[in-house]
Amino acid sequence: MRPTTAFVLAAGLGQRMRPLTDDKPKPMVALAGRPLIDHVLDRLAASGITDAVVNVHYKADVLLAHLAQRTRPRIAISDERGELLETGGGVVKARALLGPRPFLIHNSDTVWLERGAANISRLIEAWDPQRMDSLLLIAERVRSIGYDGAGDFDLGADGRLSRRRKGTETPYVFAGVSIAHPRLLEGAPSGAFSLNVLWDRAIANSRVFGIVLDGLWMHVGTPEAVIDAEERIAHHDRA
C-alpha cells in the first residue's frame, strides 16, 4: 500500500500572486530559477513517486506546454478548464486517473528546506492504511514563511489531528501535502468543494493523522512570499 502516485493541485486562479500570474498560472511562477511546479514534481520523483496527475484550469496551455517537456514522474492531466472544482472536487474528478491505491495530494505553492530525512519519504513511511484515511504533513506555525494565520490543527500524542477551536490558536498549520486512502472519497459531494469537508468527516471518526515537517516550511502564495522564500533558499544554499 506504499503510495506511488500523486495528485498535484495546479488549477487555482492565483489571484493573490498577481501581477506574477497575469500571463501564467501560479505553478509556473519562478522560485529560485525554477517554476514552482518543478520544485514539487522533482521532490515527488526523488521520493519514489512514479506517476503524477496534475489538474489544470487557469492559463492551462502555459502549464501543459511545460509539463510536456518532463519525463519524471509520468504525468497525466485532469482538465478542469470547463469548471474549477476546488481541492476536494478536483480530487474526485481525477479519481479514475489516480488508481485504486492510496495516493499523495500536493499543493503547488508549498515548498520547504529539508533539515533531516526527506519529508515526503517520512510521510510515506508513516502511512498506515489500517488506521488512517488521511495522513497530513503539518508544520510549526511560528517557524513558517508566508503564513500568518492562527494555525489549523492540534496534534495528539497518538498522532491524531483535531481542528483548531474557534477563537484559539494552534501550533500547527497544514503544510500542503497529504496521503489519502480511496475510502476518504466515499460519499463525497459532487461539484466544487474543499478537501476540508472530507478531512472533517474523517477527523470525526479519528481517522486523520499528522507528522511534523522537519525543516523550514514556506507557503509561496504571494509575490512577497516569493521574495522571502528566495532569500531563505539562497541563505540555505550558501550555508
Classification by helices and strands: alpha/beta
The CATH class, by name, is: Alpha Beta
Number of domains: 1
Shape: globular
Description:
- There is one protein chain.
- The chain is α/β, with parallel strands linked by helices and 239 residues long.
- The protein has a single domain, classed as Spore Coat Polysaccharide Biosynthesis Protein SpsA, Chain A.
- It is built from 7 helices and 13 strands.
- It has helices spanning 36-46, 60-67, 86-93, 95-98, 119-126, 195-204, 223-238, and strands spanning 5-9, 30-31, 34-35, 51-56, 74-79, 103-107, 110-114, 134-140, 153-155, 161-163, 172-180, 208-212, 215-219.
- The strands form 4 sheets. Strands 5-4-1-6-11-8-12 form a 7-stranded mixed β-sheet, sandwiched between helices.
- α3 (86-93) crosses α6.
Question: Which structural traits does this protein have?
Answer:
single chain; 239 residues; alpha/beta; Spore Coat Polysaccharide Biosynthesis Protein SpsA, Chain A; two-stranded antiparallel ribbon; 7 helices; 27% helix; globular
In short:
Helix content is 27%, strand content 26%.
Q: How are the secondary structure elements laid out?
A:
Elements: E1 5-9, E2 30-31, E3 34-35, H1 36-46, E4 51-56, H2 60-67, E5 74-79, H3 86-93, H4 95-98, E6 103-107, E7 110-114, H5 119-126, E8 134-140, E9 153-155, E10 161-163, E11 172-180, H6 195-204, E12 208-212, E13 215-219, H7 223-238
Parallel strand pairs: 1-4, 1-6, 4-5, 8-12
Antiparallel strand pairs: 2-3, 6-11, 7-13, 8-11, 9-10
